Amino acid sequence: MPETFKIGRLGKTHGVKGELTFHFTDDVFDRVEADYVFVETEGLLVPFFFEEYRFRNEETALVKFEGIDDATRAAQLTGCDVYFPRELTDSGDGELTWTEIVGFTIADSISGQTVGEVTGVDLSTINTLFEVRTPDGQTVLIPANDELINDINRQERCITMRIPEGLMEL
Prior knowledge:
By secondary structure, this protein is mainly beta.
């Protein structure tokens, strides 16, 4: 899984020929014209090759995978998470999408301690926030502010930040 990142979830079937709704959080599969994505089934990441897809809106597409030719087979994939291989991303210029950052570790540049793992990015407010699961299982929100970020190490999947004093005690 470290070589992939989650980009969405498969929804209900559409029609009788094996199409599924795909609710995505990152359209990287279209930007790089990928032939496949990984679908998590029974705890395993299985590659599924696109036969075709078309967008319904900015967050949903209808997808048809090779070998999935009827609604019964497609229904077996409803509710499954969809992942994309990091090696195929279009962010080779050093820029990461918010979706790609999920799974990165946050480290405090002042104390040198690991703060936790990014489990999500909250874009619902004017201030973007990292949703971070701490080693003790708590969830904390940390501002994803450029002034607080010291370094992003793509290979080690680690973001070194200056964590504001007292934030972790909230």
